[in-house]
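To whoever picks this up:

The nightly regression suite flagged IS630 family transposase as changed. Nothing in the input moved, so I suspect the structure step. Input below, exactly as stored in the fixture:
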Amino acid sequence: MPKKHELTEFERGEIISLWKGGHSERNISEILDFPKSTIHDTITDYKNSEKISAAPRSGRPLKLAERDVRRIVKIVKEDRQQFLDEITKKFNDGLPSPVCNSTVKHILHSEGYFGRAGKRKPLVSEANRKKRLDWCCERKEWDTEWDSIIWSDKSRFLLFQNDAHHWVWRKPHEKYDVNCLIPTVKSGNQGVMVWGYFAKNQLGPLIQVSGSIIGLVYIYILENHLLPFYNNLENNLQYFFQDDNAPVHRARRVSQWKEDNSVSTIPWPAQSPDLNPIEHLWDVLERKVRAHKSHPKNIRELMVVLEEKWNNIEPEILINLVNSMPRRVQAVLDSRGNPTRY
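Regenerated output under the current build:
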């Protein structure tokens, strides 16, 4: 896409050098990806002035010195969720000539900082960051091994979803920086808790869960839902079952049940929803429920719609999610164990 900014002296020099080398304006435009009108104007200015630098422009001089710009950026970095009024007030404290919000906003924009909706991600403790990193280092060469994992998790779906955004000041590449994320919190809104699981080539049933899941309840779910699914898989002894580190999943009686029924598990790093592809399956389900023509009015209707949409999830979605595992692992390695875009 053609660039739209004031040319630097180096860029003007490139244009003039190519022109002097016999290139046409159209050819220079294609080489440097500048609009043809920009190429023409730059060459015309050079012919008239024999200078590469741009002519001085009139206008109001900058009100702030470079150290003031650095101070504004420092204030923003201390708390990315501040309102513009707060940033301006902090900056003006002790100044003989205060500036307005527009000036501060202009400076922030010129430094590459814009107000954006913060991405919601669970924060990762330092200990779990290291565990996530180690887990991914051990599996960075995995490929088809991911095809033999049964992914599981539970999720809560609300009757009335809160879509409110929390805004942060950030640069475009800082979208998933730790200090630009919004920690996720549990909602008290009315909804339904479900538990589900899938493998690359097959989707398990969606199970409604009421109340707290204790050891006996979890064993009942595994016995009556997971085990039939597991036993029907071809070469099922090659499969590993994934569940997270919730205390009930690691309870002694649950571990004994898994051992008695030859259900092998994969160790799992805490605070790692971005490594579990079923999290994106919940997103798919959420979008399908929201797109349903008549929105559910109560828990019963919500569960009916959830089951209908779940059972109609396209097989290629499951395949694509499992195929994303090498990229998820690499993303965690690149972030040194911190939250990723997944």
